[in-house]
Write a structure and sequence with these properties.
A four-stranded antiparallel beta sheet has the order 1-2-3-4, with helices on one face. It is an alpha+beta fold. The longest helix has 16 residues, at 14-29. Helices cover 25% and strands 27% of the residues.
Length: 102
């Protein structure tokens, strides 16, 4: 993965983790079938699990999320939703936001 990272924050508060998880889960659940091909992600979530570390790289502009384990993409899913909850988490942590597609 070779996207420019503007900043990052660790989600220490349970509320932040739950917001991030819910935002992504609802976006996948509400997928309406529309996709574009830009894949210029503005958000990512890194999840550490017993089986390894996974990066959920999210592009709300083209309605897709790619999941990587290391350099290998393991799955891609469609999403429909808003990036605003993730933007609020980043803004609160003083992480600069990328220019939005929308």
């Amino acid at each position: 993965m070779h996207w420019r990272i503007l900043g990052q924050t660790e989600l220490l508060a349970n509320q932040q983790r739950q917001t991030a998880i819910t935002t992504l889960a609802e976006a996948i659940e509400n997928f309406d079938g529309r996709v574009a091909r830009c894949f210029e992600p503005r958000h990512a979530l890194r999840v550490r699990a017993a089986r390894g570390t996974y990066d959920f790289v999210i592009c709300f502009a083209c309605n897709s999320v790619g999941v990587w384990q290391g350099e290998k993409r393991v799955v891609t899913a469609g999403i429909t939703g808003t990036q605003e909850p993730l933007d609020r988490i980043l803004t609160a942590a003083k992480v600069p936001l990328a220019k939005s597609h929308r």
